[in-house]
Amino acid sequence: MAYDHAEQEQLATLKSWWNQYGNIVTWVLIIVLGAYAAWAGWGAYQRSQATQAAQLYEELQKAVAAQDKEKVQRAATDMEAKFAGTAYAQMSALAAAKSAFDSNDFKTAKTQLQWVIDKGNSDEYKAVAKVRLAGILLDEKAYDEGLKVLAGEFPAQFANVVSDRKGDILVAQNKLDEARVAYQTALDKTDAKNPARQLIQIKLDAIGGAPVKKAA
């Protein structure tokens, strides 16, 4: 079909524009489409990782139920190596730590808890690991190390258990005035309906009750 004069002018203008900007447009499209493909691929990869991690975590839970401590540790180590970025890795390490602790393997328990503290991406899981690690250090009479683990910031919902654990360590060190302050803080941070309050109160009463308030 023959072009009329106006169409020929438009075609010439288009060809001129394409000669000047065509390569840029092509590269922009390549970048945009490549970015989309990468994003879609990453989403599929993440879903695949989560599925595989869930399956491995299920195997670990079965090993816990069967009290197969060797298999528990193998599954946890495998999870940490392959799926460290998932919540399953942190849950697996905590489960493996408890399994090791129940078997009096404190060294392995501490290693698993330290992994959560160092590698975990959830402040809540890290807090759980720190409180449990401090408990093991208390049993080992590593009091200063235990207090060091409990130093620093924690999520607000852990304020009571952290203070309670600090109180336990301070009592073991015979630092009763500081322990009373820690236990009182734990009580203040514990909901009135929480059954843990009774145990905290018993421990506080056993070392002389509420701390003496300083005069203003």
From TrEMBL:
Transmembrane segments: 24-45
Keyword Transmembrane helix: yes
Membrane topology designation: Single-pass type II membrane protein
Domain Ancillary SecYEG translocon subunit/Cell division coordinator CpoB TPR positions: 15-208
InterPro entries the UniProt entry points to: SecYEG/CpoB_TPR, TPR-like_helical_dom_sf, YfgM
Annotated localization: Cell membrane
Keywords assigned by UniProt, alphabetized: Cell membrane, Chaperone, Membrane, Transmembrane, Transmembrane helix
Cell division found in the keyword field: no
Similarity field: Belongs to the YfgM family.
PANTHER family assigned to the protein according to its UniProt record, in alphabetical order: ANCILLARY SECYEG TRANSLOCON SUBUNIT, UPF0070 PROTEIN YFGM
Identification of the protein by name: Ancillary SecYEG translocon subunit
Organism: Herminiimonas contaminans
